[in-house]
Fold each of these.
Amino acid sequence: MATTAATTKAELRKLLPWWIGRFRLWEWEVNLSFNTEVGDGLLGQCRCQLPYRRAWIDMLDLSDEAWEKNSDTDPEVVLVHELIHVKAWPMGIENDDPLSIFEEWLCADFSTAFVALRRNQQKPPNRKKVKKDHHA
Ligand SMILES: [Zn+2]
């Protein structure tokens, strides 16, 4: 599995069950789709039907130039961000609730941190760098 940024739909679809397992969302049916339009400048969006444990994650098509415009946009981070929303969905925080801003911050910071951890953990140690450090 790639330790660098997932840049294709196929890679993201392969990562989805891994993250679902990590977040213990096995009971949820998560539908991932890529669209030419998601919503006002958004890269991803999700909605859920809590009683049925069903979620729909819509992501902006990876060929869209919006992905390149911002250096901090990473499709896997966006996918994980939306999955954290699924995890938080039972708390019932509506968009107009003042708490929703904290949910957004949580999703943003946790998704960035989790994706960084996944990549670092799987990356083999850089032997040259370790040797150099030891002799310094
Ligand atoms: Zn969000």
Note: The chain is about 45% helix and 15% strand.
Amino acid sequence: MERGSPDPAAAALRRVGLRVTASRLAVLTALGAGAPHASVEMLVGAVRERLGDGSAQTVYNVLRTLTDAGLVRRIEPAGRPGLYELRVGDNHHHVVCRSCDAIADVDCAVGDTPCLTAADDSGYEIDEAEVIFWGRCPACLAAMAGSSAELNQVDRARGVQHQLAEPAVATAQPGSSATSHQKETAREEKDRRV
Ligand SMILES: [Zn+2]
Ligand SMILES: [Zn+2]
């Protein structure tokens, strides 16, 4: 029987009573070595590199086991693939970039669930508030600032198009009861706007 392994991944598995297997070790090690928030795709690549093979299904299964055991946390920003991380138990939140999907941790001010108090709990026993901040990361902000002059021009051009496309006050539909006078007014209105 293997004893006193210095591998922290193996120690973590033992601590929660999980058998130490090559795929579990590979996933935990990949999580510790790569980006702090890893997708299944990234992890499958890392596991294959380490073990020589490894199916996506195996990685999924390992991740479910590790998540259930509390060694790994899964987060699911809306519309993005699920991400896995080793930072567990502190109820930290995340900020996600709308432009490039970059993600960063945001410490929880309280450090425990739920850190937000519902104005009205509707009689539920609430144990968690899932908080995801959305915005733009520094890199995307810098890129946007760099091309902001260009963007302004585009926006202005678009604004003019908008005005032109906007329907005049009483656009007459085929078969509508708009009188010719109303149509006339609409046309005048449009002319004035342009
Ligand atoms: Zn970004
Ligand atoms: Zn995180």
Note: The two ends are 85 Å apart (CA to CA).
